[in-house]
Amino acid sequence: MPFDPRLISTVPAAVAKAAMDSGVARRPILDMDEYRAELSARLDPVSASLHLLFERVQSNPKRIVFAEGEQPQIARAANAFHNAGLGRPILIGRHAPIREAFATAGIGLSDVIEMHDTSLAERRHEYAEFLFRRLQRKGYLLRDCQRLVNNDRNVFGACMVAMGHADGMVTGVTRNWYTAYEDVRKVLDARPRRRVIAVSIALIRGRAVLVAEDCFPSNHFLLAGLAERLGFTLRTVPLRQGAAWVEDEDVIAGWTPDVGLALLTWVSSVSSHRCDLGALVAHGRRMGSLIGVDITQAAGLLAFDVKAPAIDFAVSTSLKWTCGAPGAGMLYVAPALIPQCQPRLRGWFSQPDPFSWDITRFSYAPDIRRFDHGTPGVMACAATVPALDWHAGQDHEAMRAHNRNLCAQLQAGVLAAGLSLASPTDPEARGGSIMVRLDDAAAVAATLARLAAAHVQADGRGRVLRLSPGVLTGPEGIARALDVLRKKGR
To answer: What's the rounded Cα separation, in Å, for the pair 265 and 218?
Structure first.
């Protein structure tokens, strides 16, 4: 039975409280919240360090300038900063693009978040005069300082800090470190007898990548192998005892601000459970995490919109409902995120011009092509394109209705046969499959053999029999499958 990591901070604390209430405890615990945090630290020391850091900042929240407020990643960061109770974010930029950045990131723009347009701000003249007093001996005219304040958001943000209108500033997303540093040094000096230091931090290091235990095994194998190399903690949300799928509320409970990336499974391959993507993405945005979704088990059957809710990336395969061949994959990355990604696996197809042979001048393609690398598997792609063309020409709503109708017949027949379901009964909480829980893997193998003899194709995962009625499945096929299952139930 897998260990549920939430228990270490729940059970001991409950036992300790009961001992204190009954008078058995000899050393009462004065701060139960601190005790729970200490217990959690025994499983994840990094999370504990971040917890202490967050507590210190939350006890003395600050007003922080986000100089590049028109960027979606800054919208996510500012929103997470506010939701974590760390302080009040101040975004620099034009109001319309800031609102668009929040919409692109799938986040509501709170009234608590301040916005300042440098060319319209009331204090721009005050900042320009302040900057002129600093720079006039270096050859700057007043109009030069006015231009800097009106046009350079780093300068404007640094002026807010210098004049006491903000406590700190975040920048460096759209400009390199040196350029941002030079902008800030026009306004701010190091403290007396202090040196300016630069620290480069790989943010994934020391952070967590979140997945659920019912994710596709290949995803977990890959992430487990990358964790040590890239320095992140792989946090797997466990199944409850006897459960067929991971509950959304358990995913949310394990999704804390130290999660840098969450890979969600839209529909589980072992239960056909469909997660509440809207609720999970909304929580993830509050945590400031990147969000990816594996849509493999329902792509091509259920409608999926990468913008509702807005996610950062989605992965799938050409198999299953899209009817393609094995070996071809599908990848979506949010356009605003693509320029920030530099895939480690790269090749001649990663470039703007694949036929550029100068081995000393590699550059990434500006679009999704940068995620390509060497020569693609042509056979898999060639075999898949006709299937995708065929699928694109179908009535997708009719395909969904056909699947839902056959699933309803299967589910009713399975329950009537006295068998147990391993998939949700509510079609709105399910993908396109009906899962039946049998006694063991041997029982599944025997049932698959009997189904094959009745000209019914199905498959299994452990003790779970998977039935996925597709476009070629008809009522007569369902009847033959249920006839086999009724005999199994007896």
So the answer is: 12
